[in-house]
Amino acid sequence: MLRTTLALVVLTTFAVGTSSAQQRQLTDAEKKIITSTYGSRLKDPLSAQYRWPNLIKARADAPDYCFQVNAKNSYGGYVGFQTVLGSVTQRNGTIVGYHYKMGAESSSMMNDTASEFCAIGGYRFQ
Predict the structure, then answer these.
(1) In DSSP terms, which residues pair with 88 in a beta bridge?
(2) CA distance 84 to 35
(3) How buried is residue 58: exposed, middle or buried, by Cβ count under 10 Å (0-12/13-18/19+)?
(4) CA angle 20, 22, 25 (to 5 degrees)
(5) CA atoms within 13 A on the CB side of 117
(6) What is the pTM of this model?
(7) Phi, psi of 61 (to 5 degrees)
């Protein structure tokens, strides 16, 4: 039930028809905004590795953006790439803010849910 409710909430935030939406790469400045905001959640933010898919341009003021992070755990070992779902604030088409929603350090159910929502939203990882 929780998963179904969560699915409905997150799906409403994704733009409909993302397969035909325009996409663009993030600039280094935009990546820095996301890593500095999200990195505060990590034990060793400077060692984190990221995978940056293209931003799917949406008409929303704060569209969802998905990326993957491979970060170190408390023992100093990398945990493997995990999907993170958040939203970005844009001004004149440029990312100026980031807000974390779910994934990576959440429960395994939330990690799976974040991956599913990102796939539905059109984000693909290699």
Answers:
(1) 98
(2) 12
(3) buried
(4) 135
(5) 32
(6) 0.80
(7) -70, -30
